[in-house]
Amino acid sequence: MGGPRGPFSMDGEPFQPRFPWWNGDLQTLRDTFRTDALPPDQGQRLPLDVGGGEQLLAKLDAPLSGAEPRGLVLLMHGLGGSSQRAGLRRMGDTLQRSGFAVLRLNMRGAGEGRALARGTYAANCNRDLLQVLRQARSLAAGRPLLGMGISLGGTKLLNALTSSALERRTAGLDPQAPLLDGLVTISTPVDLESCSRQIERPRNGLYQHWLLKRLVAQTLADPFGVTASERQALEGPLPTIRAFDAAITAPRWSYASVDDYYRQASPLWRLQDPRIRRQLPPALLIHAEDDPWVPVEPTRSLEALQDDRFQLLLTAKGGHNGFHGPGGCWTDQLTARWFQALLD
Questions:
Q1: Of 28, 166, 205, 306, which has the fewest beta carbons less than 10 angstroms from its beta carbon?
Q2: What is the spatial distance between Cα 150 and Cα 73, in angstroms, rounded to a whole number?
């Protein structure tokens, strides 16, 4: 486990997997095999405007204590996810029990918000997310606004936080004002090209098939319709995530090609620039070395850039957004403690 001391010391808190989730694949699949006992979803439905008469649906959850919230945490789902996914809801429940209000966002085309906006999201969807961050700051009502991104959700937040001044002005934001007061990401791809190669490995065939099935269904369910060429691609053989991104994601978000999309939507090169990295709030990036979906090497390449505000926490075990330990989900609990210590 690496990383300097930050808002609190992480020394002496190594992650240990619990039986029977011993390896990275079992950690990754645990939430598919087991369900956690969560309270009924009582989140307030909150449509957020993103321009052009379109909206993204968020769910707003109050602290479970009934007390005034310590802050508001924007929770971002990963690829093929939504505000209803068990892992995201469990994270939200942990944060609510720790005194935070939680805003669970459905990105464009995801979950219960499918009917509110045409198309689908991307790893860099600043034209939507910057609008959401402006409204989330208002919802925080003067309290701290924090961000937590699972997998690709973290990529979206990192891209938004390192966005250009022009993008921020277009979204009605002050380029000098902080977008978030703190950030945690878990199992987040910072380099899309290497992530694409990883998921295409033969040993990950079942994972890729599962992701593609969800992405194709999500895209075809668009009540605004799909183009003839998109439908032809979606109803034909799409063997890889790269093929989906080439046919759907890159052209929809005005990238010249899938390679152009992977390069521009990867936050790695921006995080390597000290001038851009200074735009980040205090941030903690958590990643397991045995993650079968997202390679750890691009994240590890940032180790030398760590300081009191930019931290990495690399663990030997944990899989992809797994981290199921003897006391429950270790990263859920760590995120809550990190946010609490940051505000203290």
A1: 166
A2: 13
Q: How many CB atoms lie within 10 A of CB 286?
A: 28
What are the structure tokens assigned to 121, written together?
A: 């999201």
What the chain holds in terms of domains, given with CATH numbers, is 71-82+89-192+265-343 (3.40.50.1820)
Amino acid at 145: L
Q: Is the pTM of this model over 0.85?
A: yes
Helix (H, G, I), strand (E, B) or coil at 119: coil
Q: What is the rounded distance in angstroms from the CA atom of residue 304 to the CA atom of residue 71?
A: 31
pLDDT tens digits, 262-316:
999 999 999 999 999 999 999 999 999 999 999 999 999 999 999 999 999 999 9
**Residue 81: phi, psi to the nearest 5?**
-100, -170
Q: Identify whether the C-beta of residue 323 lies closer than 8 Å to the C-beta of residue 329.
A: yes
Report the C-alpha gap between 168 and 166 in whole angstroms: 5
State the Cα angle at 195 between 112 and 14, rounded to 5°.
Answer: 90
Element (H, E) at 45: strand 44-51
